[in-house]
Amino acid sequence: MKALRLAALGGPAQLRLDEVDLPRAASDEVVVKVRAAALNHRDVFITKGLYPGIELPRTLGSDGVGELEGRRVVIDPMIGWGDDPRYWNENGTILGMPRDGTFAEYVAVPRANVFDCPPHLSDDEAAAIPLAGLTAFRAVVTRGRVAAGETVLLTGIGGGVQTLALLFAKQAGARVIVTSSSDAKLERARALGADAGVNYRTDAQWYKTVRSLAGGHLDVAIDSAGGETLARALDLMRTGGRVIVYGGTQGEAQIRPFSIFWKHLDVLGTSMGSPGDFAAMLKRFRNGLRPVVDRVFALKDGVAAFERLDQAEQFGKVILRVSA
Amino acid sequence: MKALRLAALGGPAQLRLDEVDLPRAASDEVVVKVRAAALNHRDVFITKGLYPGIELPRTLGSDGVGELEGRRVVIDPMIGWGDDPRYWNENGTILGMPRDGTFAEYVAVPRANVFDCPPHLSDDEAAAIPLAGLTAFRAVVTRGRVAAGETVLLTGIGGGVQTLALLFAKQAGARVIVTSSSDAKLERARALGADAGVNYRTDAQWYKTVRSLAGGHLDVAIDSAGGETLARALDLMRTGGRVIVYGGTQGEAQIRPFSIFWKHLDVLGTSMGSPGDFAAMLKRFRNGLRPVVDRVFALKDGVAAFERLDQAEQFGKVILRVSA
Questions:
Q1: Which residues in chain B are closer than 8 Å to A224, comparing Cβ atoms?
Q2: Chain B positions in Cβ-Cβ contact with residue A260 (cut-off 8 Å)
Q3: Best interface-test mutation with A: which of B41, B242, B255 has the largest number of A CBs within 10 A?
């Protein structure tokens, strides 16, 4: 079968469309015929060696929709979360490293990770959901407990997780403020339901603008930037606010403990989600909700797809079409 | 009546033992005849102007035990917490600023803030409980949810809150590791039940020593230092660990978001506690538990008492004896 393999570290240019053996299913596993897959920043980080436990060569890819026993299925990319819904088992892994992933014609996964696909979604849309939807759902609902009428800040709109977090937060009845370095992305976000957008590149005092738009203080902030963005978010929260941290691409944050203790904040880390989160997340799509697809590439054009994500040009998910 | 008043900012030397009018009780208030009071770092900070909303002249003092209608009572220093047990009402205040406090022969407080004193405690011991006990109880129990068998780090043992946190954590069945810059304080903490102590002044790699003593990772850390201490604590936690922040005397902390999201941490701010926390905290003393009294000063020697706290020489609470 054809598979997009990472042969060596050094960025997306090290990906190769190889001919490899079909995967074999272990006793508790199944082999899914992949129709479409989607990229995550994790995949780009792995090509650059910025991820723990990399083994090469390996087929990347955490997100996939495909066929199994006549059903159309989506795959939960969290393998071996464990028994505690509050946090993962440290031995858990994510599909696509170290285990071979979805950027191939077939992928072997545990049977427990296969779920029926929401019927109204196209293959490309369904492929856009798994990792980003799981992360966003856990951030907004399980950890963030976003409620109707609350004001939520989503820092850095445009990626798969934040665009789905926007949809879930609006579905929950929240008011949503987004930030981006791109006016075009802010415009897209408004079209998706965001109530306000702030460009942090052209507005050096973006945090003051957010405070003003929020009418004083935020109830919830959802951030994967870290750095100054996270520090500012802590200072923007109301008493009893919740700051959900699911990444840290800007690196270390210089924070004021005063904001945390004086305002009784909950600063809650999250990564991926439990099987229960995945099942609950899929139900959010039963009512006709659709994820945002940025662009669709053929599997053979995988390097171009990776570069689009690497340059942060996308709004929504970048899809790899594997088979018709 | 006699009252220890702060007339001007400039440190403890600005305190004066004045003769002032008796306090008057508003309709929902009572006047308690104070027997003993206790100092908190808050009082020292106020003398230096390091606190919001200072009004002068004012009688300081958040902690007090005294007599009311023939009963011996302790006073909950949190005035107007509000209806939500999760966090305080922003209009709430703490006894002793801006409202006149307990460093006087009489103090007026809301009737709802008066609780029966645990009978086995001396006046000095009972005075040691209110603010520190409320803060420690909320940190260990309400926010920290410390459970039997867990390993808890208490950074900077010696102050009133951390010594009571030690007692509450041991009462909960936890293993407790403490840090201090003083071997004498570590020895005192061990005598109180601490399982291990690390001197962060003489052991530059104190966090590695803590990790080793913890057998890998901590379940809970309780910190009011901030700065490097808080940053190290985040890195020492197990997956699913809880870091409780109730102060930040070292100032800003340079933290790694990775520790928070990858380990699904709960970083939880807390300050004071609800009326329910106060009542539950007092029950912890029903079984014979006693707080640690460092030294007892007469009210007229208040400046010396403040200086002892300001120089961080104490282990346990510094008490002001107001009347016999």
A1: 261
A2: 245, 248, 267, 269
A3: B255
Instruction: Identify from A246, A249, A267 which residue to disrupt to test chain B contact, counting B C-beta atoms within 10 A and taking the largest count.
Output: A267
Q: How far apart are CA A161 and CA A271, in angstroms?
A: 11
CB of B3 closer than 8 Å to CB of B103: yes
Specify the 3-state DSSP secondary structure of B120.
Answer: coil
Amino acid at site A166: L
260-289 in chain B: CB under 8 A from chain A: 260-271
For the stretch A263-320, pLDDT in tens is 999 999 999 999 999 999 999 998 889 999 999 999 999 999 999 999 988 999 999 9
Domains recognised in chain A with CATH numbers: 2-129+285-321 (3.90.180.10), 134-269 (3.90.180.10)
Q: Report how many helices (DSSP H) and strands (DSSP E) chain B contains, helices first.
A: 10, 19
Which among B240, B257, B267 is the nearest to A260, CB-wise? B267
Using only C-alpha atoms, what is the Rg of chain A? 19
Distance between CA atoms of A294 and B22, rounded to whole angstroms? 73
- pTM, full prediction: 0.96
CA-to-CA separations, A8 to A46, A52, A82, in angstroms, rounded? 10, 15, 31
| A118: preceding bond cis by omega (within 30 degrees) | no
CA distance B35 to chain A (A): 30
Give the integer Cα–Cα distance in Å for A127 and A321.
9
A86: closest chain B residue by CA:
B240
Pairing state between β A196-199 and A93-94? unpaired
Residues of A in contact with B136 (CB under 8 A): none
Distance CA A213, CA A211 (A): 6
Residue in A273, A290, A1, A274 with CA at minimum distance from that of residue A117: A290
Output the six-digit token pair for B167. 């007692």
Give the ipTM of the model, two decimals please. 0.96
Q: What is the CA radius of gyration of chain B?
A: 19
Tokens of A15: 């990906």
**Please, which residues bridge with residue A198 across strands?**
A179
